[in-house]
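Lab notebook, design round three. We kept the backbone fixed and only want residue identities now. Task for the bench partner: fill in a sequence for the structure below.
Input structure tokens:
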């Protein structure tokens, strides 16, 4: 927020960086297509951040103040950046250890192709509900399920949509989730009151999503799936030591996540365990991967594990689908994603430190006259914050603070606001390529955000259900406590 001694920004100034960003991103996609997130979008974000800072200078702010605001804004994402780097290492180490291949191998035999998408959504929902983390769910079970979908000859894009739909339902409804605790904390609502109130919007959205995934799965090409399935099983069996022992790192990560041990530490332990189990169980795989027969075997093992952590695992069998499936991971694979996150957070920080973000939100609040319009404006604001600030936590905290007094003034219980924050800020964050969540999911699952977002049915439906409730004045609770059913 700009210093009070400076001139307050105008609405035109607030819209200038936003409008320019829309134009530049449109040109980026038009010129570079699916490769726009590999540099072009980042440049667009940097340019628009610079425009916002110029507006701040024009209004009397100092460069030192603006620069510090951007640095502080980027620092918010450092936790996500560390997690991304650890997940890159985990993927490489777990493939080398046979953990991911074993998950794929058994998953191919257990999961029916016809019901794979709906089962994927349900599995991820249950896992995320138990551990309270959509990111950990996608980075562990999600990686295996993506591999299973390739092995079955199914769509990776739809699978990613099912993983994210289930993971975000479980994350949103789990009392162990950070966002589920953050939203009621910001608004002054009891945690379990908040969760019970969310059932009304999340349950219908998930039910519809499960029906859609079931219909899609029943219309898949089963004959092609059988051929791809057997080929993949043979390749996995021939190239890895498939064993339940390889799943121990997965179990350890789940236990640590359930005990709420910090994500960075949890994933780091999982990565190192993957390296240890690779040495114990996949000696031949490491030797083939390193391909230095003249080197002492101990050094070969060390180089294999070390390389998998920073550069990922690669395999070349002549089968393109199989090679793409398992040539992944390493910290280096996350560098472009970090580039995107840092530039996006710079833009969001520039908008906030110059007061442009505050101007936009205050204007939106002033336009909302009815209860339906007020809740609709919260939904729109949070989604907009996900686009502008690239961070779901800011998209919860900032609108939560801004709208809290207005909800109280209108006699609306704070749990309506906390539910709406989660129905929009939490749920839509993985649908935006430069948001930390969207960038994480794309990098972890190996599917571009622009390719999977249309299949995240739960994430797309939840804000719609929430808005319909607002328009009908259904399950909107006044401060007195009695719900108003339309």
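Proposed sequence:
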């Amino acid at each position: 927020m700009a210093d009070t001694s400076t001139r307050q920004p105008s609405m035109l100034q607030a819209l200038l960086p936003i409008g320019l960003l829309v134009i530049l991103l449109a040109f980026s996609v038009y010129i570079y297509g699916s490769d726009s997130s590999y540099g072009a979008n980042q440049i667009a974000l940097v340019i628009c951040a610079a425009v916002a800072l110029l507006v701040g200078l024009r209004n009397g702010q100092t460069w030192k103040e603006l620069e510090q605001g951007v640095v502080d804004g980027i620092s918010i994402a450092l936790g996500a950046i560390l997690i991304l780097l650890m997940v890159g290492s985990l993927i490489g180490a777990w493939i080398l250890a046979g953990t991911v291949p074993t998950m794929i191998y058994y998953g191919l035999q257990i999961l029916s192709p016809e019901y794979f998408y709906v089962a994927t959504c349900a599995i991820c929902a249950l896992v995320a509900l138990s551990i309270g983390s959509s990111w950990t769910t996608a980075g562990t079970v999600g990686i295996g399920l993506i591999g299973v979908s390739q092995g079955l000859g199914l769509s990776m894009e739809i699978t990613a949509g099912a993983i994210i739909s289930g993971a975000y339902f479980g994350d949103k409804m789990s009392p162990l989730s950070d966002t589920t605790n953050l939203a009621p904390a910001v608004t002054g609502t009891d945690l379990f009151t908040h969760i019970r109130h969310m059932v009304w919007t999340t349950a219908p959205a998930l039910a519809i999503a499960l029906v859609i995934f079931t219909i899609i799965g029943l219309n898949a090409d089963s004959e092609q799936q059988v051929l791809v399935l057997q080929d993949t099983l043979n390749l996995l069996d021939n190239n890895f030591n498939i064993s339940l022992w390889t799943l121990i790192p997965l179990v350890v990560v789940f236990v640590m996540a359930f005990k709420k041990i910090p994500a960075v530490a949890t994933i780091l332990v999982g990565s190192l365990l993957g390296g240890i189990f690779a040495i114990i169980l996949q000696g031949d795989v490491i030797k083939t991967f390193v391909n230095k027969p003249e080197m002492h075997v101990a050094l070969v093992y060390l180089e294999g594990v070390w390389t998998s952590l920073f550069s990922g695992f690669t395999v070349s069998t002549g089968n393109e689908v199989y090679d793409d499936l398992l040539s992944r991971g390493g910290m280096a694979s996350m560098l472009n994603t970090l580039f995107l996150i840092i530039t996006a957070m710079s833009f969001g920080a520039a908008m906030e430190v110059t007061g442009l973000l505050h101007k936009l939100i205050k204007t939106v609040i002033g336009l909302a006259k009815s209860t339906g319009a007020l809740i609709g404006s919260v939904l729109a604001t949070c989604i907009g914050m996900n686009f502008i600030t690239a961070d779901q936590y800011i998209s919860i905290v900032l609108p939560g603070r801004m709208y809290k007094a207005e909800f109280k003034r209108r006699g609306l219980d704070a749990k309506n606001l906390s539910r709406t924050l989660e129905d929009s800020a939490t749920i839509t964050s993985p649908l935006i390529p430069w948001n930390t969540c969207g960038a994480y999911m794309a990098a972890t699952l190996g599917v571009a955000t622009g390719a999977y977002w249309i299949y995240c049915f739960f994430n797309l439906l939840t804000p719609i259900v929430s808005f319909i409730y607002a328009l009908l004045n259904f399950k909107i609770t006044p401060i007195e406590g009695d719900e108003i059913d339309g």
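Keep this in mind before ordering anything: The chain has 24 helices and no strands.
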